[in-house]
Every structure is written in C-alpha cells, then in structure tokens.
Specification:
mainly alpha; 18 helices; about 500 residues
Length: about 500
Amino acid sequence: MSAGLPEPEVSDLRPEGSLGTRVSRGLGWSLMGQALARIGVFTSGVILARLLMPADMGEVAAALLVVNIMMAINELGVIPAIVRWTGDLKEATGTAATIAIVNSLAMYVVAYLIAPYVSQLTNTPGSMWVIRIMSLTVLVDGLIAVPLAILYRELRVLPQVVAEVAGTAVYVGLSVGLASAGVGPNSIAWGRVFGAVATGLLLAVAARWMVRPRFKLSVAKELLRFGLPLAVSAAVFEGVMSVDYLIVGRELAGAALGIYLLAFNLSSWPVSVVSMAIGRVSFAGYSALLGDRERLARGFVQSVAVALSATIPLVLILVVLSPDVVDVVYGSVWAEAAAPLRWLLVVGGLRVLLQLGGEIIAVTDRTMVVLRLRFIWLLLLPPVLDYGAEHIGLSGVGMAHVAIAVGVMTPLFLWEIRRSGIPLVPLAFTLRRPAIAGAVAFVAMMLVSPFVDAGLVRIFSLGFVGSIVYAAVLLPSNPVISRTWEQLRGAGGGAPL
C-alpha cells in the first residue's frame, strides 16, 4: 500500500443512504458505460470486418475460446467472496490478492502451452500466437481482482464505468491501427491486452488499493469455500458459451468460425449491455439483503423486470433486422452470419434471466447448485451442437443453443430459484408487461416491413417503429418503471431494495 492511501476498512465499504437508490443509480451509470463501450466495440468491429477476413476472425475466435474460460476461473472466485466478506478486510484482500495473482500466472502458463493444440482442434493454424498474446490479459485480470472486488462491494460503479470506457478506447484505437498496418488478427489480441492494462490501472487507482499480497490459510479456506464453486461454475458457463467455437471450427473450418464469431458477438449485444451493467450492482445488492428475505425476493423480481424490459426490444429489433444489419454494416462477405444470428439472439436474451437467477441462487449460499446446473448445460450442449453443425450448418448451431436453453435450462433454473425462497408468481406477473410490449412491437415491425426498402432506411425505419411501439406499451403506469425512477431521483420510499 502506497503512503497516504490507507487500506479500506469494512466500515468504509457500506456507504450510507438508501440501498435501492445506490443500486439504481449504479445501474444507471453502468448502463450508460456499457452503451458507450458497446458503441466503441461496434465501431471497431465494423472497421475490422473490412480490414480482416473471416479466416482471420476464426483465429480470434480460437483465442477467445481459451481466454474466456481462463478468465472465468482466473481469480478463483475471490471477487464475490470479498463482496460478501464480513470479517477483517485487510487479511481478506491480502490473501485474495495472493490467490488471484498466483493462479493467474498458472493460467497463463496453461494457455501458452495448450495454444498449439487448440489451433489444431479449431482448424485455425495461425491462431497459436493470437492465443498466447491475448492470454496476457489473464495476468492483468489477476492483478486487478481485489481492486475490482472493493469497488463492487462499495457499489462504486462510476469508476468502473470510466475505467471500462477508457480501456475500450485504447482497444479500439490500437486494434484498428494495427489492423490497418497489416498486423492481422494479432492486432485484436494486442488491442485487448493494452485495453486491459488501461482499465486495470484506473481501477487500482479508484479503489485506493495497491498490490500487497499476504497469505493466511484460514482466510484462504473461507474465501475459497464460497468463491471456488462460483469460479468453477463461471468456467463451466464460459465453456457453455465457447464450446460452439470448437465445434464450428472442427466441423465447418476456420472461415466459418470467423463468420460464426461475428454472429455470436452481435447476439451478445443485448446481454452485454444489460447483464454486464446489472452484474456490477446485483450481487452486492442481493448480499446486502440476505437478512430480509422478503426484500431480497422483491429486489430480485425488480432487477429481472428492469433487465428484461431493457433486453427485449434490443433482441426483437435485431431478430427482425438480422440480414439487413449484417449486409449493410459488415458487408456481403459476412452475409452467412445472419442465419445463426436470429437463433443466438434468443439465447442472448435468456442469458440475462439465467445470469440473475444464478446470482440469487448463489447468494443464498447454494453455490454448488449453480455449478451443478451449468455442468448439466455443458454436458447436454456439445452433442446437440455437433448434430446441428453437421446436418444444418451454422443455423443448426444456433438452433441447438435455443433447444437446450429454452427446453432444459430455463425450467431448471426457475425451479432452483423457487427452491431458494423466491416465489415465481410475482416474477411472472411483473414480466407480463414487457412480454406484451415485445409482442406488439414485433407485430408492428412485421406489418411495416413489406413497405420499407432494404438498406439503411429499413434498419432505421423498423428500428424506430419497434422502439416507439414497445415504449408506448411498456411505460404508461408501469410500477417497475415508477419505482426505478423514484430510486434514481433518490426518493426510494417504495423501492423494493
């Protein structure tokens, strides 16, 4: 710890004021930050799609297959464990730092060694060094685990938003610049590394915590008791979200993998904007309400309602406009991405519900249940994905994702949410309005569609119609919107949190 920057005490991390107000304001900042970051990533994606070929993006997808799984297990769950910690915070953060840093070094060594084998499995022979370069972000992630946990615990979202936007700017500028200079897929890898460094530096400064690793065995055991099942669960979930890269690369070759990566990234827009934003405040908010199960249930229902209310219109508009967006924005060389995109968007929307469901199950000290659910998902998905890829192609991969997510995982998660003490009837009642608004907006877009020419005019026209109709049905006299607005204003009297 540097001079003049005292380590935070437990009392520092529970600021006064309405929890509902702090959560809602944090969510507002987080949504804005995610929107800005997504705009930057979208802009760079459009430019990179013109500078790189599908085979190049296939090599990037192979690297993401490794990095996403490594990042999920990288800090061994010490971040949620620190957020939920009730003892001596100095000992906890010092021990957590040691765990995260040592494990990140081990993870990087593993990523470096398996890179040649992954490149062979995915039919992307040029991906070996893309994997090894991009995996450097794992080291950065280990160093910033504790500062990030402190910011989560304090519900200090604005510094996280600033750091993320700054890191995105570095990533966009560097990756586009290097790709323009002919560096190829390595441009994206180096962009991600330096973007992560910029984000990490800002997070460390904001948290007022400089790395000072310690180690106490009893503290480590307690941190890992809670956090390790969540880390393994997160790694399994990343396996669920990344195993399709392996199967597409093996069955359909590297160029198809690059096209699929574009579709998957577009489908992840709704879940990235909403779930990442909510994830910054939801776990800490739920943890603060553990002593009051009635308020916890109301808080969960409200958070799901807000999340899906924001996700549904994004999913619907992209479902209707998938071919137009891919063709106009990215170019005809990527046209095949539209086929799996529509199916993947459905899964992207469901991931918002399943992420929040997993958090509410975990925060009630049922972390092994979350791990079991995600293992089931990972076991069921590969054979269905393989069948879809072999018999239908890229569309079949998207269909397989939908079949497992809708037919198996959503019912299982809902069952376990109910077993965690969260009644499902209020949840279903609260979600009626966004569901009806989405259906009406979809019908409106379908009615207008035959009268609008293809191209940018079609994208803006149908997007405008869908947004306006959705808002017109969703907003009037909506208690979820009213409560959220009261919290944002600081009124908070009727807030569920």
